[in-house]
Automatic annotation (TrEMBL):
GO annotations of cellular component type: cytosol
Protein name: Argininosuccinate synthase
Chief location of this protein within or outside the cell: cytoplasm
Domain Arginosuccinate synthase C-terminal: 168-374
Pathway connected to this protein: Amino-acid biosynthesis; L-arginine biosynthesis; L-arginine from L-ornithine and carbamoyl phosphate: step 2/3; Nitrogen metabolism; urea cycle; (N(omega)-L-arginino)succinate from L-aspartate and L-citrulline: step 1/1
Gene3D superfamilies attached to this UniProt entry: Argininosuccinate synthetase, chain A, domain 2 (3.90.1260.10), HUPs (3.40.50.620), Single helix bin (1.20.5.470)
Reactions catalysed, as given in the entry: L-citrulline + L-aspartate + ATP = 2-(N(omega)-L-arginino)succinate + AMP + diphosphate + H(+)
EC number: 6.3.4.5
């Protein structure tokens, strides 16, 4: 759903700009500054599931002089076209960050460019600062799809005028306030009973979630993901406080909460290991790391990212089945799994049933693998003798 509001257009203008607008301090200052510089501004707000007062943001943009205000509901396409590929990839940056912010940027920027074309705007603009990752993510997407960008936080006339922003941010101290998290409860205050869920996957994508006790089921992508956010948030799942390496070379502190994504990561890892060949999975893991870096660094619309997505999608053909898990006190516990495409052979691994595996075959296998170790030890021994 799109909401669009129009106001009068200035007679003299340097051009029309579509601004990715949030209603916050930065983008409100940018909207005013662009108007002062002689541009007409269209404010674009994207609903990707955040807790936002869109009516208030719209009224603020109108008051500041936006020519039009677009409020776009991107939640369904965000889940299906961006989050699901990340789930298939087990995408995690630097082993901990589930990329919720990073992966939202190409979704938002794509719609921003579509509005710019629709409205015949000459420019797109954003409020990302000159030290952050988002400037790269927004602009690489925009340059891939639309060439003209105004980035105020890198224009001296803008950032020299708005140095006061630093003073407004001094409240952020080493120990964050307890109400910093918006989606998740403190695990200490979460329910004393776990929620047991069953998640069904087809080709690596979640297609249904069922609450075992209540019998509640969700099977549309947006409802499924929102339900997992609700359950995970209730139990304080998915909180992290990390120091991460920004693409531009500096380290920064990040505090994130990804309740639904954390539940899906645990479930998908489990069903993937259950159904995927070992060597294929090793290659796929390396592709997942590369995919995570590409998302984080803003290269969603690059040829290499498209290639990696196709490879990961191919790897998911047999990732099918059901995972049962418990969500409780900040943790996700896997309880079991089943799949028609399981590679787990109980008879083959049983100590009680020999099947078609001859234990004697292991002797040659072990000896061959020991050759390298014996040679390494021989070389080390020779080196010690010469000392």
């Amino acid at each position: 759903m799109c909401v669009c509001v129009c106001v009068c257009v200035s007679e003299m203008s340097k051009g029309l700009v579509v601004l990715a607008y949030s209603g916050g301090l930065d983008t409100s200052c940018i909207l005013l500054w662009l108007k002062e510089q002689g541009y007409d501004v269209i404010a674009f707000l994207a609903n990707i599931g955040q807790d936002e007062d869109f009516d208030a943001a719209q009224k603020k943009a109108e008051k500041l002089g936006a020519k039009k205000v677009f409020i776009e509901d991107l939640r369904s396409e965000f889940v299906q076209e961006f989050i699901w590929p990340a789930v298939q990839a087990n995408a995690v940056y630097e082993d901990r960050y589930l990329l919720g912010t990073s992966i939202a940027r190409p979704c938002i920027a794509r719609r921003q460019v579509q509005i710019a074309r629709q409205e015949r705007a000459q420019y797109v603009s954003h409020g990302a600062t000159g030290k952050g990752n988002d400037q790269v993510r927004f602009e690489l997407t925009c340059y891939a799809l639309y060439p003209q960008i105004i980035a105020p936080w890198r224009i001296p006339e803008f950032y020299s005028r708005f140095r006061g922003r630093k003073d407004l941010m001094e409240y952020a101290e080493n120990h964050a306030p307890s109400d910093l998290y918006q989606m998740t409860k403190n695990p200490e205050d979460s329910p004393s009973e776990p929620d047991v869920l069953e998640i069904d996957f087809a080709k690596g994508v979640p297609v249904r979630v069922t609450h075992v006790k209540e019998g509640t089921s969700k099977d549309t992508p947006l409802e499924l993901f929102c339900y997992l956010n609700e359950i995970g948030g209730k139990h304080g799942v998915g909180r992290i406080d990390i120091v991460e390496n920004r693409f531009i070379g500096m380290k920064s502190r990040g505090i994130y909460e990804t309740p639904g994504g954390t539940i899906l990561l645990h479930a998908h890892l489990d069903i993937e290991t259950f159904t995927m060949d070992r060597e294929v999975r090793k290659i796929k893991q390396s592709l997942g790391i590369k995919f995570s870096e590409l998302i984080y660094n803003g290269f969603w619309y690059s040829p290499e990212c498209e290639f990696v997505r196709h490879c990961i999608d191919k790897s998911q053909e047999n990732v099918e089945g059901r995972v049962q898990l418990s969500v409780f006190k900040g943790q996700v516990y896997i309880l079991g799994r089943e799949s028609p495409k399981s590679l787990y052979n109980e008879e083959l691994v049983s100590m009680d049933v020999q099947g078609d595996y001859d234990p004697c075959d292991a002797s040659g296998f072990i000896k061959i693998n020991a050759v390298r170790l014996r040679e390494h030890n021989r070389l080390q021994g020779a080196a010690q003798k010469t000392l």
